Automatic annotation (TrEMBL):
<dbReference type="InterPro" id="IPR003767">
    <property type="entry name" value="Malate/L-lactate_DH-like"/>
</dbReference>
<comment type="similarity">
    <text>Belongs to the LDH2/MDH2 oxidoreductase family.</text>
</comment>
<dbReference type="GO" id="GO:0016491">
    <property type="term" value="F:oxidoreductase activity"/>
</dbReference>
<dbReference type="InterPro" id="IPR043144">
    <property type="entry name" value="Mal/L-sulf/L-lact_DH-like_ah"/>
</dbReference>
<protein>
    <submittedName>
        <fullName>Malate/L-lactate dehydrogenase</fullName>
    </submittedName>
</protein>
<dbReference type="InterPro" id="IPR043143">
    <property type="entry name" value="Mal/L-sulf/L-lact_DH-like_NADP"/>
</dbReference>
<dbReference type="Pfam" id="PF02615">
    <property type="entry name" value="Ldh_2"/>
</dbReference>
<keyword id="KW-0560">Oxidoreductase</keyword>
<dbReference type="InterPro" id="IPR036111">
    <property type="entry name" value="Mal/L-sulfo/L-lacto_DH-like_sf"/>
</dbReference>
Length: 343
């Protein structure tokens, strides 16, 4: 592992994206979200995603010069991302939702046609840091199946929740509906090691520990039918509410080998807590259940987002630790874009 400056890594990542014709302001926004994901320990959705994002930008699967447009109405927004990177669309959706909360107690932003948004917990965190409760999800091409299925039946449809917590860092819960994120399978395949049993099925619907067979097959849902059910919730909120012509295009229903998908849909749903309960009462309630939870669990009781917050604070003091394998990949990316990876 080697340590890297947060500012330097952000600047270099922004330059890499700008070299793919992404406008400078958008490139910086996307780079900041990628680096913050790395800071908080989302290793499969941080800097490791940058090479695949560049690949998708150069292939025009992500639109580097997207013109985002929105249609607003009471309590909602439809954001047409025009194929933009997910980080650019996601950041815009967060801003629109927060602006909407100035006039409404609840705002749902349906995002059409955007790229892979990365770690959804980062958007939920931004909302919670601004004082809002937030639910965010993105549909993916089919990736999940139950044992015996003849193919992937529904996306693993990640979903995240963020909530301010009085006296501490926000609660941030971020999961995919699979037992393990596909990014972990991609990392195992890249490193030439097996995946744990219970993660995936091969193309015949049989359990496998071979990451290549898993990538050709399907992921298993967390909690069996419960995971499939949550994936269906995201399909309804992120897919149906943001349906557009691109939703039916065959080329956007295939999962690329790099794992970064273009032209997908998502949603960000925010609530203004003070519209529902006075802040003192709400804070007292939050403290009560959090204190009870910690009293019951002792050293084992950790709130979602707590470890990520601690890791981010440590990285802000010491820099970002990156594994040598990833550094090698980023150096190769820098060479290909004529932007040397910083020492």
């Amino acid at each position: 592992m080697t340590n890297h400056s947060i500012a330097t890594l952000t600047d270099w990542s922004a330059q890499i994206l700008a070299s793919c014709q992404v406008p400078a302001e958008d490139a910086l926004q996307a780079a900041q979200l990628l680096v913050r994901s790395e800071l908080r320990g989302y290793a499969t959705h941080g800097m490791a995603r940058l090479p695949s994002y560049v690949e998708r930008l150069l292939a025009q699967d992500f639109n580097p010069s997207a013109r985002l447009r929105q249609r607003e109405f009471p309590g909602g927004v439809v954001l047409d991302a025009d194929g933009a990177m997910g980080q650019i669309a996601g950041a815009r959706a967060v801003r629109l939702a927060l602006q909407g909360l100035e006039r409404s107690a609840s705002v749902l932003v349906a995002i059409q046609s955007c790229g892979h948004m990365g770690a959804l917990g980062v958007y939920a965190l931004l909302a919670a840091e601004a004082g809002a409760m937030c639910l965010v999800g993105q549909r993916t091409p089919p990736l999940l199946a139950m044992e015996g299925f003849t193919g992937a039946a529904i996306g693993h449809n990640p979903i995240a929740f963020g909530c301010p917590a009085p006296g501490g860092s926000p609660i941030v819960f971020d999961i995919a509906c699979s037992v393990a994120a596909r990014g972990h399978v991609l990392v195992a395949e890249r490193e030439g090691r097996d995946i744990p049993a219970g993660w995936a099925l091969d193309s015949q619907g049989c359990p496998t520990t071979d990451p290549q067979a898993a990538l050709a097959g399907a992921l298993l849902p967390m909690g069996g039918h419960k995971g499939i059910g949550i994936a269906m919730v995201v399909e309804c909120l992120a897919g149906a509410l943001a349906a557009s012509a691109a939703s039916f295009a065959p080329q956007w229903q295939q999962v690329p080998t790099s794992g970064a998908v273009g032209r997908q849909s998502a949603f960000i749903w925010m609530l203004r807590p003070q519209a529902f309960a006075p802040q003192p009462l709400r804070d007292d309630y939050m403290r009560q259940w959090i204190d009870h939870y910690r009293a019951c669990g002792g050293a084992h009781a950790r709130l979602p987002g707590q470890r990520a917050a601690e890791q981010e604070q440590r990285a802000q003091r010491m820099g970002i630790e990156l594994p040598e394998r990833l550094v090698h990949q980023l150096r190769a990316l820098g060479t290909s874009r004529q932007l040397a990876f910083p020492a």
